[in-house]
Each structure stands twice: as structure tokens, then as C-alpha cells.
Design goal:
The N terminus is likely disordered. The protein contains three helices and 19 strands. It has two domains: about 120 residues, Immunoglobulin-like (Sandwich); about 110 residues, Immunoglobulins (Immunoglobulin-like), CATH 2.60.40. The chain has about 290 residues and is an alpha+beta fold.
């Protein structure tokens, strides 16, 4: 007779367990952040938990780990004391949610996990995830094709002039390093979508990361600000950006037709003639 009760109890635990796992997974999705830091800089990693929930519960400890095997990084206790395995790692005394990584290295690129335990109950555990990415310093450059040569655009936000009907070809590149730097062209904060007249082309090799922007038969609708954006892998966060403004002009031999009505032109000419006659009469009366 005890078997059904055990089965019901097991089923109840399984149901509660699934509910708890579901809450944890949803919390993981909410409490996930991304941070990019250049090699040698200081990384300020803040545990992305719901701060209101943390304020409502007294913190017993904050434990930091990294990587898929959850390697221990450091831990902070209720009395404010802390311990870290590496002298480059420290836990901010004034901000208990902050892990400071000094003199960052490429090997610091990992998934960092912060686990906050409350003194209220064993169930009050908050988990946050930070994708910490360290990249090597790099320099972007933009070159524009003029005939068979490539001319560097020396300053960002420079103006590039093109005559209507011309073709435009611009190259953005940087030296390839160990960091997975990706280059993309954007126009006024929108990614350029390839079509029959405008398209982008990535031509990476062992030494260089290259992306080209090509617009055929440019028109006034192509005017605007174009930017080459460098990002870390598939991240949307911009690490560095160079821009130029495209200005379209008419050809020198183009015929410009006036849109002004002939009647308006005639009235303006008549008014000018009357004004001139009035001036002549006034001058003549003055001489008399």
C-alpha cells in the first residue's frame, strides 16, 4: 500500500524539480552579459543579477568561477573578506558584485559565472553569466579605389565625392591577429544589404582581415555616412569604427532644367523692369 504514496511523492518531487530548473534556465537567459576588453587593460566584471532581489536578501557569499569546468576564481564572504587564486584577480570591497581583472591576457577570455547565496534560505541563490572577451589591439584603415590605385582615407568622417553614375569601391582592413575580429559595413546604423547595385565582399587571408564595399552607378539615394565596424566574432558590440561621408555631384556637362514656371519668371522680370524705371525716374527728378 506504500507504493502509490512513494510514486506520488516521487512525481511531486519531479514536478517541483522541473519547475525549479525552468526558473533557473529563465534566470540564466535574463542574467547574461557580454564584455570586451583590450589586452593589458583592466576588466571590470559586474555580476549581472537582479540587484533588487539581491538587496532584499542578505548576501552570505559570492563565488566566481570560469570556463565549462567552472574553475574557481574567487569568493567573497559576508564579513567582506575575500580570496582569489590569482593576484590579477580581486573582488571590489565597496562593490560586492564586482570582479576586477588587471592586466588582462588573451587566456582570460572565458565564460565567468557568479553565484550569490543568500542567508535567508538555501533556495535564495542567484546566478549570473558574463562572456568576458579579451582582444588584441588593432588598427583599422580605409582605402578608396582611384583607377588602378588604392588611396588611404586618412581621417575618419572624411567626405568622398563621386559623380552620379560612377562606381564606388572602398576597402576596410586590419592585420589579422589571434583575436577573431570581424569587419562589417553599415550605413547610418543599418547593416548594408546586398542588392544588384550595392554589395559587400569579405576577402580574408592569413595576414589580413578585409571587407569591401562596392556600389555601382551611384545616385543621390546613395549619399550618406558609411562605417566599417570591427567586432569580436559574432558579437554585435562595436570595438572600433571608421566612417566616411559619400557626396554625389552632377556631371559637368549635365543639362539642368529649371522647374520654375515660365509665368513666374515673366512676372519677376516685369517687376525688375518696373523697379529699374522707378529708380531712373527718381534720379531724373533729383537732377532737375
Amino acid at each position: 500500500m506504500k507504493t502509490p504514496r512513494c510514486i506520488c511523492t516521487a512525481a511531486l518531487y519531479l514536478f517541483l524539480g522541473r519547475g525549479l530548473i525552468g526558473n533557473v534556465l529563465s534566470a540564466i537567459n535574463r542574467n547574461e552579459r557580454e564584455l570586451h576588453v583590450a589586452v593589458g587593460d583592466t576588466g571590470i566584471v559586474i555580476c549581472p543579477v537582479e540587484t533588487e532581489s539581491v538587496r532584499e536578501n542578505k548576501i552570505e557569499s559570492i563565488r566566481w568561477t570560469k570556463g565549462s569546468i567552472r574553475k574557481f576564481v574567487g569568493q567573497r564572504y559576508e564579513d567582506g573578506s575575500s580570496f582569489c587564486i590569482n593576484e590579477r584577480y580581486s573582488l571590489d570591497y565597496n562593490n560586492p558584485l564586482t570582479l576586477v581583472i588587471s592586466n588582462t591576457e588573451l587566456s582570460d577570455t572565458e565564460l565567468y559565472v557568479c553565484r550569490i547565496r543568500s542567508t535567508v534560505s538555501e533556495l535564495h541563490v542567484f546566478v549570473g553569466y558574463v562572456h568576458f572577451m579579451v582582444y588584441e589591439l588593432f588598427v583599422l584603415s580605409i582605402h578608396i579605389q582611384r583607377g588602378n590605385d588604392w588611396e588611404e582615407v586618412a581621417e575618419t568622417n572624411s567626405v568622398i565625392n563621386r559623380t552620379i553614375g560612377d562606381d564606388l569601391r572602398v576597402r576596410c582592413n586590419t592585420v589579422r591577429q589571434n583575436s577573431p575580429i570581424k569587419l562589417n559595413w553599415i550605413e547610418v546604423n543599418n547593416t548594408i544589404r546586398s542588392n544588384e547595385n550595392a554589395f559587400t565582399l569579405s576577402r580574408d587571408n592569413e595576414q589580413t582581415v578585409i571587407t569591401e564595399l562596392m556600389i555601382k552607378d551611384v545616385g543621390f539615394h546613395n549619399e550618406g555616412v558609411y562605417s566599417c565596424k570591427a567586432s569580436y566574432g559574432n558579437s554585435q558590440q562595436s570595438l572600433q569604427q571608421l566612417s566616411f561621408s559619400l557626396k554625389i555631384t552632377m556631371a559637368k556637362d549635365a543639362v539642368v532644367y529649371s522647374s520654375i514656371s515660365p509665368s513666374i519668371v515673366g512676372r519677376n522680370l516685369a517687376k525688375l523692369m518696373l523697379d529699374a524705371i522707378a529708380v531712373m525716374v527718381a534720379v531724373g527728378l533729383t537732377l532737375i
